[in-house]
Amino acid sequence: MALTPQNSEAFMREVDDAVRQDRLLTFWQRFGRWIVVVVVVGLAAFGGWLYWQHHSKTQSEAVSEKMDNVLSTAMGGGTPDAGELDALAQADQPGYRASAQLIKAGAAARKGDAKAATALYQAMAQDKSLDQPYRDLALIRQTSLEYESLKPQQVIDRLKPLAVEGAPWFGSAGEMVAIAYMKMGKRDMAGPLFAAMAKDRNVPESIRSRARQMAGLLGIDAVETPADGSEG
Fold it and tell me: Domain tally for the chain?
């Protein structure tokens, strides 16, 4: 019995479906196990990533809360919990770690333990995992504690790179460098540095005031010129 065109088309569709099913079955038999493995591994990796994100956020929030407590206590004149402070000083986050270490070193200095404070500041200054402003501040505080035992040239060698206009710690570093110049009899080097600090509005006012007086004693005018249009 001959097939009509409609029956022939239906037959061919059935053959095509059978061929596709057979190919799919063969493919699944050959690769199905690996597909399942890839899917399971992918889901496990995605789940692990989600857990890590949640864990990191939770840990960060916990560290932030501890840091807030320590800072509030320290700024209020109290003594932060030693265990909490030690934990923060070892935190994964460089900013929290640096802040805690600064607080620890400052507390040691206030207690009169200059040796411990100096060691902490020195370790910070040499810690390349910390941002440079923290390291520079630690070096300045270390130098301040050691100032009387250092030769003027040692002070200059340490802090001269920081004693430049525009640097974050220009005032603190510049003042010690300028005094070191004076101890060496280099008034021509000290005077301009005092004047520069006196005129730099980014320098704390207490340092500017002292620098202005020192520049005047050295015969250098450190009085700021009023901006155009400020006089009426």
Answer: 2
